[in-house]
Design a protein that fits this description.
The complex is a heterodimer of chains A (242) and B (234).
Chain A: E1 2-11, E2 14-24, E3 29-33, H1 40-46, E4 55-60, E5 63-64, H2 72-77, E6 79-82, H3 94-104, H4 110-123, H5 139-151, E7 157-161, H6 169-184, E8 188-192, H7 196-202, E9 205-210, E10 213-218, H8 220-225, H9 230-240
Parallel strand pairs in A: 3-8, 3-9, 6-7, 7-8
Antiparallel strand pairs in A: 1-2, 1-4, 4-5, 9-10
Helix pairs in contact in A: 3-4, 3-5, 4-5, 5-6
Chain B: H1 2-14, H2 24-50, H3 55-69, H4 73-88, H5 94-120, H6 123-131, H7 136-151, H8 153-166, H9 178-189, H10 193-222
The chains are: A alpha/beta (242), B mainly alpha (234).
Chain lengths: 242, 234
C-alpha cells in the first residue's frame, strides 16, 4: 500500500530523515514512536507531501507520489490526515467541516455529502454536535470531528500525526476509541503517537525512530517485551518510569 | 445658518449641475462609492499576492505597496493630474484622475490589511485545507479568506472611511466635490466660515458614520454565531 525507499530529507544541515525504507501493507496499522525530534512527524507528513523529500521514492497504491504530472490535490484527497492541533475550520460547523472537501471537489452533491457527513459524525459519536462550531466543542470532540472530516473523502489510508498530544488526559480515551474502531474496520493506518497502550493493543507493527532513522520495526509484542536496539530499550525504560 | 442652507443647498448638493459638471455632495458620494467598489477587489487581489508562495508574484506587489505607501496621497494626486497627461498625452478629467488615485491608494492599504489577516491565521488552517485535497485557490477562498477578512474587518472599515475623507483632496486639482463647493460658498458669503465648515464637517461625519454602522450591521448579520476562534490548541 505504502512503500518508502531510501527516503531522505534535510533541513539545512540537519538530516531529518536518513535512508528510510519501509512498507505498510493494506489493512495494516503501523504505530510510529520515538523521542521528540526523531523525525516521526516529518516522516508522516512526507506521505501526503505536506513535506517534500530530498531523495528516495515514496509510492502509495502503486503510484510514485512525486511522479511528474501527478496531481498532488488528488493524491491528498485520497489520504486522510489528522493533525495534532485538529485544524478544524472555526468559521464552519462540524458538519460543514466534513462537507467542505467532498462538495468543493465535486465528489458528491450537497445532499449526499451531508448524509455521509452525518453518518461519519454519528460514527465518532457526535451526530448531536453536527451544527456546533469548533469553539463550542471540547478538544476531544474537535479531534473526533477532525477524524470524521478526514474520512469524508473516503480515503483508503489514514495518517495520524500525534492525534492525542494536544488533548487533556481525560479526552485521550475517546479519540483512541475512534481510532481503534477504524482499525477494526480494516482501515490502513499510520499513527505517530506516544500512546504506548494503543500501540500495544491496536498496532500490527511498531516502528521505532531516532535521529531520522527507523531503528527498529517489530510487532508490538516483541517491541514492548524485548526491544532489540539499545535506543529503543532506553526509550521504553524512560517511558515506563514516567 | 438656516438662511445659508436655504440659499445654497442645491449648490452644495450638486455643484453647478446642470449648468456645469456634476459636483458637490453627490460627486463626493459617487466618487467614494466608485473608489470603494473598485478598490476592494483590487485590494483583495493585491493582499493575496502579497502573501503568495510565488516570489514572482510576491515581490512586485511588495514593491508597489512600499512605494505607494511611502508617498503622500496629495503628491500622487498632483502627479496623476499634471505629470501623467504630459507623459501619456491623454488628458484625464479631474474626477477620473481622483478616482484612479484613490483606487490605487486605497487598494494598497487594503492589501496590507488583508495580508496581515492572512498571516495572522495559524499555518494549520492552510495545511488542514490542503490535506483534504483542496487547491491553493480553494483553500484561500473557502478557508483562509473568510476567516482573515472577518478578523481584520474593523481595519478594513477604517480604511474605507478614510477613503471617503480622502476625496476632499480633489479640492487641490479643482475638482468640485463637496469640500471645494463649501469653500466656494464660504467665499461667496464671506462672513459665515464657522457655519459653512460646520455643515461640511457634519456632512462628512454622516457619510463616514453611516458607512461604519452599515459595515457593523452587515458583519453582525454574517457572523451570527460563528465566533472568530483563532485559538487552535486544546
Amino acid at each position: 500500500m505504502i512503500v518508502l525507499d531510501k527516503v531522505n530529507k534535510w533541513y539545512g544541515q540537519y538530516h531529518a530523515l536518513a535512508d528510510v525504507s519501509e512498507r505498510v501493507e493494506k489493512n495494516e496499522v503501523v504505530v510510529v514512536c520515538g523521542p521528540s525530534g526523531s523525525g516521526k512527524s516529518t516522516l508522516i507528513r512526507t506521505l501526503n507531501r505536506l513535506e517534500e523529500i530530498d531523495g528516495g521514492t515514496i509510492s502509495i497504491g502503486g503510484r510514485d507520489i512525486h511522479a511528474p504530472g501527478l496531481d498532488v490535490n488528488a493524491l491528498r484527497a485520497g489520504i486522510g490526515f489528522v493533525f495534532q492541533h485538529f485544524n478544524l475550520f472555526p468559521h464552519l460547523t462540524s458538519i460543514e467541516n466534513c462537507m467542505l472537501a467532498p462538495v468543493n471537489l465535486k465528489r458528491a452533491s450537497k445532499a449526499e455529502a451531508k448524509a455521509y457527513a452525518l453518518e461519519l459524525l454519528d460514527g465518532v459519536g457526535l451526530a448531536h454536535k453536527a451544527d456546533a462550531y469548533p469553539h463550542e466543542l471540547s478538544g476531544g470532540q474537535q479531534q473526533r470531528v477532525a477524524i470524521a472530516r478526514a474520512l469524508a473523502m473516503r480515503p483508503p489510508v489514514m495518517l495520524f500525526d500525534e492525534p492525542t498530544s494536544a488533548l487533556d488526559p481525560e479526552m485521550v480515551g475517546e479519540v483512541l476509541q475512534v481510532m481503534r474502531k477504524l482499525a477494526g474496520q480494516g482501515m490502513t493506518m499510520v499513527c505517530v503517537t506516544h500512546e504506548m497502550g494503543f500501540a500495544r493493543e491496536v498496532a500490527d507493527r511498531v516502528w521505532f525512530m531516532s535521529e531520522g532513522r527507523i531503528l527498529e520495526r517489530a510487532t508490538p509484542e516483541d517491541f514492548f517485551t524485548h526491544p532489540a536496539h539499545p535506543r529503543a530499550q532506553q526509550f521504553l525504560a524512560d517511558y515506563n518510569s514516567r | 445658518m438656516i438662511e445659508l442652507i436655504q440659499d445654497y443647498w442645491l449648490y452644495f448638493l450638486v455643484g453647478q449641475y446642470p449648468n456645469g459638471p456634476l459636483g458637490g455632495l453627490t460627486l463626493t458620494v459617487l466618487l467614494s462609492a466608485a473608489a470603494l467598489l473598485l478598490a476592494m477587489p483590487l485590494g483583495l487581489l493585491l493582499g493575496v499576492a502579497r502573501v503568495s508562495p510565488w516570489r514572482a508574484v510576491r515581490w512586485p506587489t511588495a514593491v508597489l505597496v512600499q512605494v505607494v505607501r511611502a508617498v503622500p496621497l496629495l503628491l500622487v494626486v498632483f502627479w496623476a493630474y499634471f505629470f501623467l497627461p504630459a507623459v501619456t498625452g491623454v488628458k484625464t478629467g479631474q474626477a477620473t484622475t481622483m478616482l484612479m488615485t484613490l483606487v490605487l491608494f486605497d487598494a494598497v492599504y487594503l492589501a496590507e490589511i488583508v495580508a496581515a489577516g492572512i498571516r495572522a491565521l495559524p499555518k494549520g488552517q492552510f495545511e488542514g485545507a490542503r490535506s483534504l485535497g483542496l487547491s491553493y485557490a480553494q483553500a484561500l477562498r473557502l478557508v483562509i479568506l473568510p476567516q482573515a477578512l472577518r478578523h481584520v474587518s474593523p481595519s478594513l472599515v477604517s480604511q474605507l472611511v478614510a477613503t471617503i475623507k480622502a476625496t476632499s483632496l480633489g479640492y487641490i486639482i479643482g475638482l468640485s466635490e463637496v469640500s471645494f463647493i463649501a469653500t466656494q460658498v464660504n467665499t461667496l458669503v464671506f462672513t459665515k466660515a464657522v457655519e459653512v465648515y460646520l455643515v461640511l464637517a457634519l456632512t462628512y461625519f454622516i457619510l463616514c458614520f453611516g458607512l461604519s454602522r452599515l459595515a457593523f450591521l452587515l458583519e453582525r448579520r454574517m457572523t451570527a454565531r460563528a465566533a472568530p476562534a483563532i485559538k487552535v490548541t486544546a
